[in-house]
UniProtKB/TrEMBL annotation:
NCBIfam families: PRK07586.1. It comes from Jiella sonneratiae. Residues 8-115 form the Thiamine pyrophosphate enzyme N-terminal TPP-binding domain. Residues 324-346 are annotated as: Disordered. Signal peptide: none annotated. It holds the Pfam family TPP_enzyme_C. PANTHER family: ACETOLACTATE SYNTHASE LARGE SUBUNIT ILVX-RELATED, THIAMINE PYROPHOSPHATE ENZYMES. Coiled coil: none annotated. This is Acetolactate synthase large subunit. It comes from the Bacteria. Keywords: Thiamine pyrophosphate. InterPro entries: DHS-like_NAD/FAD-binding_dom, THDP-binding, Thiamin_PyroP_enz_TPP-bd_dom, TPP_enz, TPP_enzyme_TPP-bd.
C-alpha cells in the first residue's frame, strides 16, 4: 500500500508488517505500546490475539508460525515483559521459527531518567534473537520492520524490534510501502555434497540424522529413497519443530532422549550425516557420560546450513548415490514401533501413562495437529501413533517448559478447521495455564489432555541419571505437587474452558470422541 498522509511510527510499523503478509499479532501490551495498540485498532486486517502472560504470547507466536509457515508478530511491554516471554522465545529460536518480536521501550528522552521499568532490553533480547534492531526516530520504523521481516524468514528465526514510545507516537514522513520478496535460499556447495555421496557409498554403517525442513511429507520420501539406495539408516532428532506423519507417510523414528540409549543407537556408525539437523549431543551432562552421542570414531557431515537450499542439496545427494525413485511409504530402521490400538479395541480399566497415549493416538482426528509437551509420561505416544491418522507433530524444542498450551493455541489460530490435540504434562502446564483463557476467548478448536501424575516425573528420572538413588522428604517435596492436588477441571473452568476428569480408559475414550467432534476448546484431566 502507499501512505498518502503523515502517519506515526506505530502506524508505519503496522502497515509494513501487513504489506509483508504478517496478519496476526499476539500481544500483551503496556503503556509504552498504546500507540501501537491504537494503530492496530485502525487496521482490522491484522488479527490481534491477547495473551494474559507474555510466555503465552511468545509460545503462541511460535505455534502459529510453525503451522502457517510465515511469521506472526508479538507485542511485549518493556524489559520485564520481554523477560516473561524469553523462555518460549528460546524454544522458538531452537525451532528456527520465523517470528517478529516487537518490544516497546520508554521514549528516548525518558531513558536517561532511569524510570522504575527501565532496563537493558537489547541485552535481554540478544541471546534469543537472530536479528535485533532499535528504532530511534519514526522514519526508521518502517525500514527496520521490513528488515526484521526479512531476517525472520530468511534464516529463519526470531527478529526483535525495539520500539521506543516517541518513535511510535511521532509523525513519520509519507513513503510508499512496497511488499518485499523473501531472499532465495543460498546455493549449496556442490563439491561438498558430492564428497558426502562418495563417503556414503564407501561402505560401513551410515546414519542420516534428520531435522527441520527435511521432516515434511514432501521431503522425507527422497530421504528414504537415498537411505534405501545406500543401505543407510535414518532417524529424526529427539526434539523437532514439526513432523508430518501418520498413515501413508514415511514413518521415521526419533533418536532416544537418554544418553545411554542414544549412544547405543549410534554405536558402530562409521558416519553420521546431518540433514537439516544439529550434531547429536546430550541434553545434559552426566557424570561419566559423553556429551557427543555419535561413535567417537564416526565422521560427522553437515549436508546443508539452515539458510541453504535443502531441495537442491538432497537432489544432488540423490544423484550422487543413484537414488532415482521416491517410495510412497517406508519405515526407518531401528526399534520396531509399539503396537497401536484400533478405535474399537482400546485399553480399558484404570488409566496408565501408556494406555492414555494409546487411546489418544487411536482417536486422533484426521489432519490433527498434535502439540506434545507430555515430557516423560507421554513417552510412548510417538511409537503408538505411527500408523494413526495423518497429523502434524509439534514438540518442545529448547527444553524450556511451558510451551505446550501456548503452542497449541497458536497452531489453532493458524489452522482453523483442524483439531489441535495438546498432550500435556501437568507440571509444565502450570507455567502458562493462562493460554486456556485465550483458547476460550478465541473459540479455538483445541483438545487438551492433561497427563495428571501430580509430580515432576522427569526430575525423578534425572535424579537417577545423575546417580542419586536415595533421597528424603526435602527432595521429594521439590519433585511432587500432590499436596494439595491440582484440580484441573476447576482450573480449566476458571479460564472459561469446559473440562472433565477421566480415570479409566473407557471414560477417556468417550471424552476424547466428544471433545474432538465439537467446536471450541475442551480439557480432559487423565488421572494416571
Amino acid at each position: 500500500m502507499s501512505a498518502e498522509r503523515k502517519t506515526n511510527g506505530a502506524e508505519r510499523l503496522c502497515d509494513t508488517l501487513i504489506a509483508q503478509g504478517v496478519d496476526t499479532c499476539f500481544a500483551n501490551p503496556g503503556t509504552s505500546e498504546m500507540h501501537f495498540v491504537g494503530a492496530l485498532d485502525r487496521r482490522p486486517e491484522m488479527r490481534c490475539v491477547l495473551g494474559l502472560f507474555e510466555g503465552v504470547v511468545t509460545g503462541a507466536a511460535d505455534g502459529y508460525a510453525r503451522m502457517a509457515e510465515k511469521p506472526a508478530a508479538t507485542l511485549l511491554h518493556l524489559g520485564p515483559g520481554l523477560a516473561n516471554g524469553l523462555a518460549n522465545l528460546h524454544n522458538a529460536k531452537r525451532a528456527r521459527t520465523p517470528l517478529i518480536n516487537v518490544v516497546g521501550d520508554h521514549a528516548t528522552h525518558h531513558l536517561r531518567h532511569e524510570a522504575p521499568l527501565a532496563s537493558d532490553i537489547d541485552g535481554l533480547a540478544r541471546p534469543m534473537s537472530n536479528w535485533l534492531g532499535r528504532a530511534t526516530r519514526p522514519d526508521e520504523v518502517g525500514p527496520l520492520a521490513a528488515a526484521a521481516w526479512r531476517a525472520a524468514v530468511s534464516t529463519p528465526g526470531v527478529a526483535t524490534l525495539v520500539l521506543p514510545g516517541d518513535a511510535a507516537w511521532n509523525a513519520a514522513a509519507p513513503v510508499p510501502i512496497v511488499p518485499l520478496a523473501r531472499d532465495a535460499p543460498k546455493a549449496v556447495d556442490a563439491a561438498k555434497i558430492r564428497a558426502i555421496a562418495r563417503a556414503v557409498a564407501t561402505g560401513g554403517r551410515t546414519v542420516f540424522l534428520v531435522g527441520g525442513r527435511a521432516l515434511r511429507a514432501d521431503v522425507l520420501p527422497l530421504v528414504a529413497a537415498i537411505a534405501e539406495r545406500t543401505g543407510a539408516e535414518f532417524v529424526a532428532e529427539t526434539f523437532n519443530a514439526r513432523i508430518e506423519r501418520g498413515t501413508g507417510r514415511i514413518a521415521i523414528g526419533k533418536l532416544p532422549y537418554g544418553v545411554d540409549d542414544a549412544v547405543r543407537h549410534l554405536a558402530g556408525a562409521k558416519r553420521v550425516v546431518l540433514i537439516d539437523a544439529r550434531p547429536p549431543v546430550g541434553f545434559f551432562a552426566y557424570p561419566g557420560k559423553p556429551s557427543e552421542l555419535q561413535d567417537p570414531a564416526a565422521s560427522l557431515y553437515r549436508l546443508v546450513e539452515p539458510d541453504e537450499d535443502l531441495a537442491e542439496a538432497l537432489a544432488l545427494l540423490a544423484e550422487g548415490v543413484g537414488a532415482e525413485h521416491r517410495p510412497r511409504t517406508a519405515t526407518a530402521p531401528g526399534p520396531a514401533p509399539a503396537p497401536g490400538f484400533r478405535p474399537d479395541d482400546l485399553p480399558k480399566g484404570p488409566l496408565t501413562a501408556q494406555s492414555t497415549c494409546a487411546i489418544v493416538a487411536a482417536l486422533l482426528p484426521e489432519e490433527a495437529i498434535v502439540c506434545d509437551e507430555s515430557i516423560s509420561a507421554g513417552a510412548t505416544f510417538f511409537e503408538t501413533s505411527y500408523g494413526g491418522a495423518r497429523h502434524d507433530y509439534l514438540q518442545i524444542t529448547g527444553g524450556s517448559i511451558g510451551i505446550g498450551l501456548p503452542l497449541g493455541t497458536g497452531a489453532a489460530v493458524a489452522c482453523p478447521g483442524r483439531r489441535v490435540v495438546c498432550l500435556q504434562a501437568d507440571g509444565s502446564a502450570m507455567y502458562t495455564i493462562q493460554a486456556l483463557w485465550t483458547q476460550a476467548r478465541e473459540r479455538l478448536d483445541v483438545t487438551t489432555v492433561i497427563l495428571s501424575n501430580r509430580r515432576y516425573a522427569i526430575l525423578e528420572h534425572e535424579m537417577r541419571n545423575v546417580g542419586i538413588l536415595q533421597y528424603g522428604e526435602n527432595a521429594r517435596r521439590m519433585l511432587r505437587f500432590d499436596d494439595p492436588p491440582l484440580d484441573w477441571v476447576a482450573l480449566a473452568g476458571g479460564h472459561g474452558v469446559e473440562a472433565a476428569r477421566a480415570e479409566t480408559g473407557e471414560a477417556l475414550a468417550d471424552l476424547l470422541r466428544a471433545a474432538n467432534a465439537r467446536k471450541g476448546p475442551f480439557l480432559i484431566e487423565a488421572a494416571i
